Amino acid sequence: xxxxxxxxxxxxxxxxxxxxxxxxxxxxxxxxxxxxxxxxxxxxxxxxxxxxxxxxxxxxxxxxxxxxxxxxxxxxxxxxxxxxxxxxxxxxxxxxxxxxxxxxxxxxxxxxxxxxxxxxxxxxxxxxxxxxxxxxxxxxxxxxxxxxxxxxxxxxxx
Length: 158
Prior knowledge:
The protein is mainly α. It is built from six helices and two strands, in the order H-H-H-H-E-E-H-H. The chain has a two-stranded antiparallel ribbon. Strand 1 and strand 2 form a beta hairpin.
């Protein structure tokens, strides 16, 4: 039975690059949204899920910050209640599978951790799409940005 999948340093760099792309996309996506407490909690929990799911060196207990953020969000907006429950149950099962006293983790020839990782990735994709589609984008006024830059940045004539 294979317990660990070895990735070459080149493979780890690819996974890190994918992590940075998705994380920066989520960050810029938050930047163009209307700001309120709900979007702050939703995008912060999304950022932690990006780190937990796609981070190469993420530990199993790093998802608990997401659980706390989603608990607060679920009290504010009821449509996040099932997301909170799923992440809460998922995080606890994750710890039991990895550190609990499970004698046999193999299900139909596959390690249960692999199946559970696939389930966590599906959860992540669902939540990522949900957060992206829920909040309206704020139009960017490039003329206003240009005026602010021209007003505050003085070019020196050489």
